[in-house]
Specification:
FAD/NAD(P)-binding domain, binds flavin-adenine dinucleotide, seven-stranded mixed sheet, 20 strands, Polyamine Oxidase, Chain A, domain 2, Peroxisomal N(1)-acetyl-spermine/spermidine oxidase, 24% strand, 23% helix, globular, FAD/NAD-bd_sf, alpha/beta, single chain
């Protein structure tokens, strides 16, 4: 055993041996666990650094609104059938189509962006609820909470893993790593031996963008359904570098009399909020809105709620962004490759199909793809799982990579254009820009 795995030296230390370890209990980790549970007899544990499941799926605490609000992943960037594809069972929840035409305030006028998306939103339900209601019950007793993995020794079989409390040690033949890219880019997890150069280069290609959601409650509805401010963008290429501050009516489709305006500041548009108190953030947003709505934001403001994703110690931002160049996109393919069939990477940054990048369902399917490869290795693959990985939205699918690390890349012709935006993931239709 490696020095860090000196279990006998630690008083009250535990050593657990399983077939599969899953690191992270977000959408990817929960789906991997759920599939292992449903389709195999393999033993597994989920090691989660925080004290809750969900990761970037989180619900607003009760008291602010009379309907549930996702303060992390919120839109369904696919057909609603994706919910049943993820859970593998009939899902009885209501969803509503969300067609957004991206209106922007520029030089005193409203302009259409010229882009349309076709998404869905939950009605009286959330992404967090889906994983909590349909998947967590099957896997919760396999989760080790408050277990921040700090060491992975994959030089041996089984792989050895330890948590930062120095009390919990694990061994497994296969490890699925689903932590956010921000964590992989830091020194939080020490790999022994170090990750291969190709893997590290791929990890470093990603931008993990800042992100904050702010919900503002008003006594009157004075704002339009969804909009942005051209002035929020430090660069002309805001969509190319992934930055955006998007305002939207959070009550869309909900049975409520409340007026709640959501906003999501990602990338550069997060910066103006750094070091501000919540009250200063509310004032800043109201000042911005007042400039268009003639003082009504300040006049009708009741209260606000801030979810700063940069502040979350095991997340540290919103989601990943890659420039749209073949060289950058290679990172996804590289990270799909298992290391010696021992270490498997999964998560929103590594979806099985590139157009699912940065999404909840892409993260879930990446966990499924990793679990499936492992079940293959252990002789327990379930063909149905593979078939359920969604192809509902049009777009070229990248084949699942069954290659091991270092195999040739898929051709760049199989890639699909991706525009990073809170509610833009696919299916963009461009029209001429016009005043609205
Ligand atoms: C504000 C915001 C808005 C979004 N909007 C949408 C949307 O509208 N639609 C959509 O589809 N997607 C959206 N997304 C993206 C979506 O939420 C994510 O892609 C998805 O939830 C990521 O899941 P994951 O499992 O890959 O990672 P995570 O959810 O980040 O899970 C990783 C887990 O690993 C844990 N962890 C970290 N370090 C360690 C460690 N050392 N040891 C053990 N555990 C560790 C973390 O605590 C976390 O629980 C949004 C994200 C954000 C933040």
């Amino acid at each position: 055993m490696a020095a860090n795995m000196n279990v006998s030296a630690a008083v009250n230390a535990t050593l657990v041996n399983v077939d599969v370890l899953i690191i992270g209990a977000g959408a990817a980790g929960l789906t991997a666990a759920y599939d292992l549970k449903r389709s195999s007899d393999n033993s597994f544990r989920i090691l989660e650094a925080s004290s809750v499941i969900g990761g970037r799926l989180k619900k607003m605490p009760t008291g602010f609104a009379d309907f549930p609000i996702d303060i992390g992943g919120e839109w369904i960037h696919d057909e609603p059938t994706v919910l049943e594809n993820i859970t593998g069972v009939e899902v009885e929840v209501e969803t509503i189509p969300y067609v957004d035409s991206y209106v922007e305030w520029e030089d005193g006028e409203w302009y259409s962006y010229g882009y349309y998306t076709e998404d869905y939103k939950f009605v009286n339900y959330t992404w967090f609820d889906l994983f909590n209601d349909y998947m967590a019950p099957d896997v919760l007793d396999h989760v080790d909470f408050d277990c921040q993995v700090e060491f992975i020794d994959w030089s041996t079989i089984p792989v050895e893993v330890s948590c930062s409390d120095g009390l919990r040690y694990f061994t497994a033949n296969h490890v699925i790593v689903t932590v956010p890219m921000s964590v992989l880019q830091s020194d939080d997890i020490y790999f022994e031996p170090a990750l291969p150069v190709e893997t590290q280069v791929a990890i470093d290609k990603y931008d993990f963008m800042s992100g904050m959601k702010v919900f503002m409650k008003y006594g009157e509805r004075f704002y339009r359904e969804a909009f942005e401010f051209a002035s929020d963008y430090p660069y002309d290429e805001d969509w190319i570098n992934g930055s955006s501050r998007y305002f939207y009516s959070a009550t869309f489709g909900q049975d409520t009399d409340l007026n709640i305006l959501g906003s999501f500041s990602v990338g550069d548009t997060y910066e103006p909020f750094v070091n501000l108190t919540n009250e200063q953030i509310f004032a800043s947003i109201n000042t911005q809105l007042d400039s268009v709505y003639e003082g009504q934001a300040s006049e009708y403001f009741v209260e606000g709620y801030v979810q700063d994703w940069n502040d979350q110690p095991y997340i540290r931002g919103s989601y990943t962004h890659l420039d749209e160049t073949p060289d950058e996109w290679d990172a996804i393919e590289e990270l799909r490759l298992p290391l010696e069939d021992r270490i498997f990477f999964a998560g929103e940054a590594i979806p099985p199909y590139t157009y699912q990048f940065g999404n909840v369902h892409g993260a879930a399917y990446s966990g499924r793809a990793a679990a499936e490869k492992i079940m293959d290795l252990l002789g327990q693959a379930d063909a149905d799982l593979d078939a359920s990985i969604s192809r509902t939205k049009s777009g070229e699918a990248l084949e699942h990579s069954e290659k091991t690390h270092g195999s040739p890349s898929l051709s760049s012709s199989s890639r699909r254009t991706f525009v990073s935006h809170p509610v833009v993931s696919f299916c963009l239709t461009m029209f001429a820009s016009y005043l609205v």
